[in-house]
Amino acid sequence: xxxxxxxxxxxxxxxxxxxxxxxxxxxxxxxxxxxxxxxxxxxxxxxxxxxxxxxxxxxxxxxxxxxxxxxxxxxxxxxxxxxxxxxxxxxxxxxxxxxxxxxxxxxxxxxxxxxxxxxxxxxxxxxxxxxxxxxxxxxxxxxxxxxxxxxxxxxxxxxxxxxxxxxxxxxxxxxxxxxxxxxxxxxxxxxxxxxxxxxxxxxxxxxxxxxxxxxxxxxxxxxxxxxxxxxxxxxxxxxxxxxxxxxxxxxxxxxxxxxxxxxxxxxxxxxxxxxxxxxxxxxxxxxxxxxxxxxxxxxxxxxxxxxxxxxxxxxxxxxxxxxxxxxxxxxxxxxxxxxxxxxxxxxxxxxxxxxxxxxxxxxxxxxxxxxxxxxxxxxxxxxxxxxxxxx
Length: 391
Hints:
Elements: H1 11-20, H2 24-37, H3 42-51, H4 70-107, H5 110-124, E1 130-133, E2 142-145, E3 151-160, E4 168-171, E5 173-176, E6 183-190, E7 196-198, E8 213-222, E9 227-232, H6 240-248, H7 252-272, H8 278-309, H9 316-349, H10 359-366, H11 378-389
Parallel strand pairs: 1-4, 2-5
Antiparallel strand pairs: 2-3, 3-8, 4-6, 5-6, 6-9, 7-8
Helix pairs in contact: 1-4, 2-4, 4-5, 4-6, 4-7, 6-9, 7-8, 7-9, 7-10, 8-9, 9-10, 9-11
């Protein structure tokens, strides 16, 4: 049977769904209140830390469930998103860090292997909640060498989902060393580090239960062994696209799940009204057709990412492009058509959907977040995909 975005492809993926499904009724029940309050449901994440969910993508030899397939992570996020997409977006942070840290533990430099293995074990034990922080605001986040030989991290990151409960942050930063070209780096910074402040400033239009706050770094000390090295700033390598794909592609499941949830609400409303008009029938047919196309595109992109993530035998740059390009094709389609599907569902339901208390209102706001997710936003995706066409 061909893979389907509604079905895991591994025993570990099925185990993850078994652990998550008991949370779905509670998430649905609390979703409206958490949306109004812009509140991350910390009590549910505390339960997830105890029952093993937070170690889902940690290898079994490090104590985790051992989910390795990005397809299965996307399937799990899809189901969560239908209950509360903000929580799915927050949990994506932990799942993606498990996948990328597993790569570091297996293929990184000796120092990176030690650091990643230690964090993975903490994640599996429910002791570590790990966020990635990519987007700068006001200034570029930079690492510089301090007088004591340690690095100092200065800058500000925004839209860091799950940050209110995080114990560790993996930061995208520039590394400045005297007499050396500027490099990219990913320092791993514990929450208790002096100079680190997690702000309480989340007031997003959608994804309001994701806890996507800002983080400030004021000369935070970072030991050298906590810095994961990356490439030169002025000589970007397509090989790095592989890690960026692993970090983000599973989010596509969230936005497909939002579109599917909106579709189900529209169908239910239509059935309650009796025989629909021809215009409504047309919209429903188009909605289901677009959903089918999105599931096919996302499933294929995930399959390519899973296949190439395990194959290190070829050219690294070609591997990076081979993972990123299908991801961007699928993301481009999802960003456009998931929004369009939810919009059409509002049309089908009618004026009732244009009230704050209607569940479609939340879906309408949440689905818009996909276009801002890295990589890439619309303009950057156009640049990347057109460059591939013109290679």
